[in-house]
TrEMBL record, chain A:
SUPFAM superfamilies for the chain: PLP-dependent transferases
GO MF entry, a single one: L-alanine:2-oxoglutarate aminotransferase activity
EC numbers on record: 2.6.1.2
Name of the gene this protein is made from: alt
Protein name as annotated: alanine transaminase
Catalytic activity: L-alanine + 2-oxoglutarate = pyruvate + L-glutamate
GO cellular component assignments: cytoplasm
CDD domains: AAT_like (cd00609)
BP terms from Gene Ontology: L-alanine catabolic process
Pfam family, one: Aminotran_1_2
Organism name: Periophthalmus magnuspinnatus
From TrEMBL, chain B:
One annotated GO molecular function: L-alanine:2-oxoglutarate aminotransferase activity
Name the record gives this protein: alanine transaminase
Annotated signal peptide: none
Enzymatic reactions: L-alanine + 2-oxoglutarate = pyruvate + L-glutamate
EC number: 2.6.1.2
Organism: Periophthalmus magnuspinnatus
Amino acid sequence: MSATRMRFLSPRNLRLVHRAPRDFLGACSGRQPGGPSCSTSLTSPHSVSSHMCRALSSLTSSRRGLPKEKMSENGISRPKVLTLDTMNPTVKMVEYAVRGPIVQRAVELERELSEGIEKPFAEVIKANIGDAHAMGQQPITFFRQVLALCSYPELLNDNTFPEDAKNRARRILQSCGGSSLGAYSPSQGIDSVRQDVANYIERRDGGVPCDPENIYLTTGASDGIVTMLKLLVCGQGIDRTGVMISIPQYPLYSAALAELGAVQINYYLDEENCWSMDINELQRAVNEARQHCHPRALCIINPGNPTGQVQSRQCIEDVIRFAAKERLFLMADEVYQDNVYAEGCQFHSFKKVLFEMGPEYSETVELASFHSTSKCYMGECGFRGGYMEVINMDDDVKFQLTKLVSVRLCAPVPGQALMDLVVNPPQPGEPSYNSFIKERTATLSALAEKAKLTEQILNTVPGIRCNPVQGAMYSFPRITIPQKAIQEALEKGQQPDMFYCMKMLEETGICLVPGSGFGQREGTYHFRMTILPPIDKLKILLNKVKEFHQKFTQQYS
Amino acid sequence: MSQQHAVNGVLPKGKVLTLETMNPNVKKVEYAVRGPIVQRAVQLEKELREGAKKPFTEVIRANIGDAHAMGQKPITFLRQVLALCAYPDLLEDNKFPEDAKQRARRILAACGGQSIGAYSASPGIECIRQDVSRYIEKRDGGIPSNPDNIYLSTGASDAIVTILKLLICGEGRGRTGVMISIPQYPLYSAALADLGAVQINYYLDEDKCWSLDVNELKRAINEARQHCNPRVLCIINPGNPTGQVQSRECIEQVIRFAKEENLFLMADEVYQDNVYADGCKFHSFKKVLFEMGPEYSSTVELASFHSTSKCYMGECGFRGGYMEVINMDPDVKTQLTKLVSVRLCPPVPGQALLDLVVNPPQPDEPSYNTFIKERTAVLAALAEKARMTEEMFNTIPGFTCNPVQGAMYTFPRISLPAKAIDKAKVKGKVPDMYYCMRLLEEEGICLVPGSGFGQRDGTYHFRMTILPPAEKLKIVLDKIKNFHIRFTEEFS
């Protein structure tokens, strides 16, 4: 069965289309003999069935190809042009759990609380997303000073700002059209910022050269990732582009693939080995996928989201060799590159390892690497800053890429300015250096402490098992859900971990994302929780999770 | 498609991603506003910097509506608030007026952790969506606007592409067709190519000041029905690149047509504050729709787009914008909300800026006078430049230029000598591209050829922004005049 083909079915077959995500994953992942069954769903059966009902009820009043008739009050019939059954079917397939139904319920609960409605909790804690500032993390002073100076250059005459902040602001403004953040930049990004990014990458990678022409500034990393995937997707039927993504994955990937109508190829991370990646599993996944699609890209998230593992240098080498052998375009999502906490773990960029493997690889393997201003120590999500570096990209394709990004004119310029500061922070000897280092260190060491604390507390809870959070910003513990609870969930048409998280939200005000939103081996259940809340709050939160889990387990045993 | 594997340990040659194996839709995308002519302009600038001798001393990029790049100063109040939001320590600073501080406090209070560095809700910050809907109500004489219908976006382009994406489905004759004006703003043709939709051209009437004729819409849709499923009608008002401002009567006709033909309306209204010509006035599609009574206002589906990039503020770099959706099916709206959530949120500084645009200083506030003074100066200068451009171009033999009633561009028709057309063809170039390239090489002026926007066969145009400061604009216009005369002589 080709999932891709199913996407283009007519509205008549909506029922099948709606079932597709499920069958689709099953088809891609296959089943390992003796091992756990791999079929999983990113869609809760609840939402599937409710959509299905709506779709079916509207189908009863319509014929295929004919608009649905609806009587309005004054007796004039007027069908909508755009309905669920006449909209882009690939958009319907898109799921994005990080902002899914559970977050919508959290927003509702907040509103109810603010209206004075009594709840068993005083506030909703949104631990569903890696949003540092929303969790109380303070911005880095230097960055915000420069941004204020760029926004309102009159402040350059103000003595309260340090000289290095002013210098940075002047330099950024000089490379803006009309010396204003309000001018469009070149579509690929401001030249001097791309230059600074290239210098940063060279320093990070111990001198491996970086060409600013290979840098594209983006609207957050998501934008770069979707753009690259868009370039890669082509073919029909068995030739349709397949893209390998880890399970669990960050759902931007599955969402983008659904929208682009690409084939999702799941490879499973090994939970028993701290979510590590196994080349045999990659091989299994690509071999099975070759039966029904054309695997062309391999996506890696390192450090991992939602799983928090940090890949070893050896593992990265193996992955690169695999990509070369199987002719895969590598996409390395490295937005958490500064978020490494565990002792003995170190971030290795795919670029660096690729170049250390010698020209046989460094001159052939195609790679795009992504970074962002949203994570690390700065956590400036709202600015939507980011970049990608493309390596060994065909010149004609690069030309097409540049053309494609030009249609959206440019990435937001304040985000570009911020990106510049991240890759070119205060240097020793500059007036802001000490306070910058102090702020950065404080944030990163607090994160390291919170990573450890989260692992420790969760592992004291019977029925919760948690791998160490080696990096990134999330814990993805495995939870045991009692059989009775699973049954009740299924009766309600919910995934068991969605049922669990919804109950936790209603009873404790804590908003997590169920593991089914990221994908997991069938029969296992997880949730993703960010470790970002301030330490005191995190402790309270973890204890509430603990109490809830115990109560839940008791209730259903 | 060949699937090469490693054989005996030898790695297969050739790239994974090549022109032949990439997404074919992307290859079809064209975006002239930043096309080859702009790339050449960038090269020329570089050569000038490196000391190369050219017949000009600077490159003037009149290819794009980029106000600040052309020297327009930002509105003080807007930037004060943005600085306060970026670095809230400044709230303690006495140099900032109270109303700027209040706006900043209000925006920050609506941000997660009081920081513009937090993600916002995916459709945008709640209180900004409320401010936008109040602005729309005021603009439209009290017609209600629901904040739930407002989606903030990354510039208007983002929202336009999102709505098109929702609308496109079907295969073969059932494939969605989208009606766009010719000339058009090439975001539309680019997005349609990218999405694999069918582009349906309707031609604006150059002889009637680029007005829209419903008979032409009918011709276009009837022809299109033979090969696709027309579902959408896009209108740009005031017009880009053509600068016309639609009459109320015309908008009514368009709405009636959309209803008759069962079309989803997309109204690109980013130039709504850029209306210069006497007797012209901006009418929003929303307002006209509601004034036509419930038969229309409760049925016709409409999305309207606005942006922080144009009007008097010209803040392109912030990528702020919004759309309002009217009569959208609630299930589709759920899908729209889901779709925008994948990209998390539009840039928050752009959202903050949009808030200030829809909620500027009020008469009793300290920044009001300065704000009005700055805004009026920009708009008056634009009106003057619009008039000057039309006048000047119409003195050039071989130029016909409609009045620039609104927006930021002139799109004059130019007659090219037959010999020049032949020469262009020999060089494998579209004639107006050849013309514009020559103009760039000889005068350093960067324009966009009409072929990048679409035009009737056998006619030639270019788009030029009227944004340069008046003195510079005069020089630009003179240079174009001299060039055109020279060019015509050379080929006659």
